[in-house]
Amino acid sequence: MHRPERGGNGCLYALAAVGVVLVLFGFLIEKVLLGPDVGPAPVLTFDEVYPEPFDEPKVELPPPDFVPEPQPVEASETVRLLWHAEADDRTPCTIVLEVERVRGGIGPMRARLSCAGDVRFEGPVQGELRETPEAAGSYAYRASLDAAEAGVSFSLRSSTQSATLRDASGVRAFHVEDLSVPRRGAPFAASNAGREAAVRERLRLLAVPTRTDGDPPAAVLAAFRDRRAPPSESACELTGATVISASYPCRLILRCGGETIYGASSTGYNRCVVHDGEIVSAEDTGTTIENADPRLRLDVARDELVISDDDGTSTWSATFALSEDPRCALAGRWEGSAVDAEGTAFRWRIGDFGAEAPWTGRIAWTSATYDGLDETVVATPDCRRGRVALTTQAVSDERLGSGRYELWFGPGFGSLVGAWEGQEVIPGELWGTRR
After folding, report:
1. Residue 245 has pLDDT above 60, yes or no
2. 70 burial class (0-12, 13-18, 19+ CB within 10 angstroms)?
3. Is CATH 2.40.128 the classification given to domain 334-434?
4. Could you check whether the bond before residue 358 is cis, i.e. omega within 30 degrees of 0?
5. CA 404 to CA 126: how far, in whole Å?
């Protein structure tokens, strides 16, 4: 991690965590509507959503808006929001959204879609962001964005887990995770400060089919056939997180071989049982005919998941054993990009991690001003939540400092995004993929 320049133009930034812990039954959702890159200032609006006694929605209905006075557009800092994504051929991807924070709100936005180091799209976007508290001092975002210029169009709808890119080579579809990875710091909306979600810890578990009955989807059958082999392209993965809704505390998504079995499009919302911020169990008794997705029964303590359905043409069920994914490791080679709070861009490469503990490896940093600076780090994986913490152990040059990284794995543990901070370093964000 890069140190501030001594006596130069650098200045030390620190990420401040908000420490007030309030467990709420329902919490305020912030919706940020963006205007054009030039012209009138963006408008910040507030949505309030209250719990209602209705079944899982097939679509999400926007609540009424209250529109305050427009805020003056005066850029104060650039904030980067990070999403995991995956191309339709299963290539791991990342989406970086740069948001200009202005006094009282947010300004222009710019998105970058990269897959295995190849930038597929980069340019200004317009649309809306919705912010939700997660754990204390951290916030996640849902995005609905569009861009169209010079024969290229890009559309992102993270609530339906989809993005589309149209250019001279054709139309390409991408799976995008609903929420950005957690961002620490001050919220975009001051009313979210100090708030917490009911679900404060995410889930990312390997789901191995142990039994199938009837006529399950082909992707489930493929995972069942490969159940005794190491996780591969056909493997199933269960994810769970908080939601942008006061009616449902969590959203669960099961994907097998890149196909969404439960939680497709705008479904997957569940009144799960939560203990100390963690999903304990969940049950969805409606079939696809009744609420647009299959039945689900989840017992995290027993590491068991059952999915079943009767869609009018076929009846089936599948039982899955849940476990930490052995792909939750930094073994192999990882490469990507990074930007610190001063706007300095880097390339990085992670290597030398073994497949087993002790988890010690190396990050090699390259920028426009230096090359080949190494940082030795110790990793602390948290595989059930799909994240890993890295702590600096040694640096090869005084231009690097000691700090801590909080990084999150993506689908199939093929992408890695997150942020770093520390008293000796300029904080920043990084994103990349396994090679």
Report:
1. yes
2. middle
3. yes
4. yes
5. 33
Q: What pLDDT digit, counting tens, does each position of 284-334 carry?
A: 999 999 999 999 999 999 999 999 999 888 899 999 999 999 999 898 899
pLDDT beyond 70 at 214: yes
For strand 278-284 and strand 273-275, is the pairing parallel, antiparallel, or unpaired? Answer: antiparallel
- Give the number of other Cβ atoms within 10 Å of residue 406's Cβ: 17
For residue 396, the Cα-to-chain-centroid distance in whole angstroms is 32
Distance between CA atoms of residues 358 and 405, nearest Å: 17
Q: Are 407 and 420 in contact (CB under 8 A)?
A: no
> CA dihedral in degrees (54, 56, 59, 61; nearest 10)?
40
* Residue found under tokens 């090699």: 364
Within the chain, all domains assigned CATH 2.40.128 are found at: 334-434
Structure token digits, residue 224:
């069942």
Contact 252, 240 (CB under 8 A): yes
> How far, in Å, CA of 317 to CA of 10, rounded?
59
Give the model's pLDDT for residue 370: 83
Beta bridge partners of 29: 47
User: What is the tens place of the pLDDT at every residue in 145-161?
Assistant: 999 988 999 999 999 99
First CA to last CA distance, the chain: 22
193/104 Cα distance (integer angstroms) = 14
Q: Hunting for tokens 């180091």 — which residue is that?
A: 117
